[in-house]
Write a structure and sequence with these properties.
mainly alpha, Serine Threonine Protein Phosphatase 5, Tetratricopeptide repeat, about 85% helix, elongated, TTC23/TTC23L, Tetratricopeptide repeat domain 23, TPR-like_helical_dom_sf
């Protein structure tokens, strides 16, 4: 009850600043919370389409408060509102660190609600995790990004298929993080899997495939990867005693003939 009261107070405080069109202002006070939410969502989308991020973020903050008022904190509609707000902050680059300080918990709560309501393999859950992963990359939290992608990889294979764009993107994120951490051999192996999928999905001439191919080629030249290839070639050679034995047998058969 207290959360609804505080949400209602915050809505009243911003009524005159968020709704700018005269017709909206005239009718807004007579709307139900659900109708207000619908209006704010439409306005937020319109502002996002025109890349007006400041007013868009204001509308999305309002949408989040209204969603909590209409549905309650545990509903996945609230998680959707949190995700939309996160995306707006990410697109408006100047707000990124402010978002990190104030809204990281909201995004984690959003993912938690998706998991509880829809399951870890649901497309919306996986999409929310991808959004958060990109946010983590932008804020320098590469290891957490890779960890989330590794955890979701099996679910993505199950939901989208082994040879899907979603699996390729996960592998690309993981491989990129491995490369920045100096794990060249791991990165080469991961990105090679990504490249194989991209070749099948897009073909070798697609810009995504070409970009991954360049990275794989670069990694192939690193000492760690090239030494690994030498070790593999040595391991596949026959044992020295087997070679000697085989040569002796050939010599013996020739002399007997």
């Amino acid at each position: 009850m207290s959360s609804s009261t505080s949400s209602g107070e915050s809505l009243q405080e911003t009524d005159s600043t968020v709704i700018s069109q005269k017709a909206d202002v005239k009718n807004y006070s007579m709307m139900t919370p659900a109708e207000k939410l619908s209006l704010c969502e439409r306005r937020a989308q319109s502002l996002a389409d025109s890349e007006e991020y400041d007013p868009c973020i204001q509308e999305l903050v309002r949408c989040l408060a209204l969603s909590r008022l209409v549905y309650g904190n545990e509903h996945f509609a609230v998680a959707q509102a949190q995700s939309r707000l996160a995306k707006a902050y990410l697109q408006h680059k100047g707000r990124i660190f402010n978002y990190l300080i104030n809204n990281e918990n909201n995004e984690l709560e959003s993912i938690s609600v998706y998991r509880s309501a829809l399951g870890p393999q649901d497309k919306l859950t996986l999409s929310a995790q991808d959004d958060f992963s990109h946010f983590l990359l932008l804020t320098g939290q590469q290891e957490r990004c890779a960890e989330i992608q590794r955890e979701s990889l099996a679910y993505k294979k199950s939901t989208f298929g082994e040879l899907s764009a979603e699996v390729a993107e996960a592998l690309q994120l993981i491989g990129g993080v491995e490369m920045t951490q100096g794990q060249m051999r791991h990165s080469h192996r991961t990105l090679k899997k990504c490249l194989d999928i991209q070749n099948m999905l897009y073909g070798p001439q697609h810009k995504k495939t070409k970009a991954t191919q360049r990275t794989v080629d670069m990694l192939s030249q690193s000492p760690e990867v090239s030494e690994g290839h030498k070790e593999i070639r040595l391991e596949t050679r026959p044992a020295f005693c087997a070679v000697v034995s085989s040569a002796s047998e050939v010599t013996s058969s020739m002399s007997n003939s």
